[in-house]
Write a structure and sequence with these properties.
This protein has about 150 residues and is α+β, with helices and mostly antiparallel strands. It has four helices and three strands.
Length: about 150
Amino acid sequence: MYRGELLAGYAGESVVLRYDPRDITTILVYRIEGDKEVFIARAYAQDLETEKLSLDEAKASSRKVREAGKAVSNRSILAEVRERETFQTQKKTKKERQKVEQAEVKKSKQLIPVEPEESVEAVSIDSEPEPEMPEVFDYEQMREDYGW
């Protein structure tokens, strides 16, 4: 159901309706003048003016509403879409998963008691401290996390 107040002046005329399958809540209305299409207005779906809904999502929502035994309308589709969004769980990013895993590793290392081994201490005359390892960054992960 689309609002048609703006189109009342074109009652009885043939018009061409076009839509983007990625967002069917907005329809572009054209009239034909000769061999050209002239843009008239945008028509927005009632009760879905602030939403963005793809054709595939609308079909799936309509199917689910019908299966529930309800009448398919813009309001019932909107309710189903919002219900689905409410229960949708956010997938953690790779960085978030790694952070949790590292915390678990640190925790497990603290819980494992380390017993000293009975061995002869080796003394090195020219012992140098081991060089510190540089921090390594995953370029692809940084692009994903920071949107570069």
